[in-house]
Amino acid sequence: MIDSINILPVGLRDKEEVIAYVLKTREQLFPMLDHKVIPKDLQEFSSTYVETDLGVFLQARTGQGELIGTIGMMVYNDRFPYFSFTATKIVEVVKLFIEPAYRRSGLATRLVHELKKISQKQGVELLYLHTHPFLTGAYEFWLKQGFDLMLSCEESGFETLHMTLDKTKVIKTDTFNSFMENC
């Protein structure tokens, strides 16, 4: 089953279908969010993921063309002030979504593997991501993919787990220390 799945970058032809899929899946996984607000990366999908030297959005499709999974990486924008990075080419891994019938099949691991290969070709020095404990199995999955936990804290009312693929490139800043004192 998993061998007949194609993983390829999203181009302009598939963009609208993939964005609709991501928004629908996001609404199911995060019902507490305001879904009238479209995330900036999806609003600017082409410049964030397609027309860029640092980033990509991958899609997984069955042999019949059914969209069954996604993952993206985009330039990290320093949106979390708790640490800084010694690397200069940093991406944030985002929107790993797998259709329920394909979960635990190895598809998510294949998507991450392809993303890592592309990041290496693009010269990415550090992969960063965050996840949440309420996403069953997510933290354990990312640990199996080689990511390390850098920080667990509350963000916008959610416990958030900040992770990187190489913890040696993370510097915890004074902002991090003062943040931790107030947790």
UniProtKB/TrEMBL annotation:
N-acetyltransferase domain segment(s): 10-168
SUPFAM superfamilies (alphabetical): Acyl-CoA N-acyltransferases (Nat)
Name of the protein: GNAT family N-acetyltransferase
